[in-house]
DNA sequence: GTTCTAGAAC
DNA sequence: GTTCTAGAAC
């Protein structure tokens, strides 16, 4: 009897939940509806970085030419973005020999940034071949990949396949050639990379699901 | 890029 | 029944 009453209560509370969606969602719908009436911007979120790099809350350090911020959704214990202030490019694909000095400055600043962390972590420094956010940004990320923000296969593969282009490779290429045409993957290859099986970056383990990969990565991190 | 959630996969 | 992924979001 008591359990029946409890089940009934649960049922009715679930119904209540259905009839009253979370306020967060309502606000979102209202905001979208407003933006549609006046300025329909399908990809408004792409400019998120441009906002973040100008918000002192996020800035780790800043110079005339570069700003370094913490990634808002870090995919590892340490995850920074090194962003050139005065560049119009959205992707590393368009970098040329003319950008070599800038890239070397970014490399120097990145190495300085992680200098004191090298006893705690290893780092990857590079660009996503196909970034989602506008404004060229260099990822400086620790290789533990232990983070609650790491959730999807795309997250993992974007850093752990040839979708991730190491800065030192880019610099090497531009020292011998004018552009990155013969280093850069095609759009088709990029799609394949992002859908690859989930291979651990520290051993031969292949995970079947993201949750199992995350559990596995934690075992590497705790054995350090 | 994230959030949300339907329905696939287990 | 629960876990997990993947596609929509105008």
TrEMBL record:
It comes from the Eukaryota. GO terms for biological process: single strand break repair. SUPFAM superfamilies: HIT-like. Residues 46-150 form the HIT domain. It is found in: Nucleus. Transmembrane segments: none annotated. The keyword DNA damage applies. Keywords: DNA damage, DNA repair, DNA-binding, Metal-binding, Nucleus, Zinc. One of its GO terms (cellular component) is nucleus. Pfam families: DcpS_C, zf-C2HE. This is HIT domain-containing protein. Its main location: nucleus. The keyword Zinc applies. A motif (Histidine triad motif) lies at residues 135-139. One of its GO terms (molecular function) is single-stranded DNA binding.
């Amino acid at each position: 009897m008591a359990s029946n009453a409890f089940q009934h209560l649960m049922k009715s509370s679930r119904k209540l939940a259905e009839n009253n969606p979370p306020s967060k969602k309502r606000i979102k719908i209202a905001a979208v509806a407003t933006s549609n009436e006046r300025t329909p911007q399908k990809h408004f979120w792409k400019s998120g970085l441009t906002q973040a790099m100008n918000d002192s809350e996020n800035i780790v350090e800043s110079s005339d030419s570069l700003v370094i911020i913490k990634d808002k959704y870090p995919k590892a214990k340490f995850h920074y973005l090194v962003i050139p202030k005065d560049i119009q490019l959205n992707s590393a694909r368009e970098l040329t020999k003319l950008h070599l000095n800038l890239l070397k400055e970014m490399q120097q600043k990145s190495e300085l940034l992680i200098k004191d962390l090298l006893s705690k972590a290893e780092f990857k420094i590079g660009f996503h071949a196909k970034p989602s956010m506008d404004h060229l940004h260099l990822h400086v990320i620790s290789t533990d990949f232990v983070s609650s923000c790491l959730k999807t296969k795309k997250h993992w593969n974007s850093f752990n396949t040839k979708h991730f282009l190491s800065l030192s490779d880019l610099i090497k290429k531009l020292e011998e050639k004018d552009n990155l045409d013969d280093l850069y993957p095609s759009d088709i290859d990029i799609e394949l990379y992002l859908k690859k099986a989930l291979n651990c970056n520290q051993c031969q383990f292949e995970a079947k699901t993201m949750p199992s990969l995350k559990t596995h990565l934690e075992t590497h991190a705790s054995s350090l």
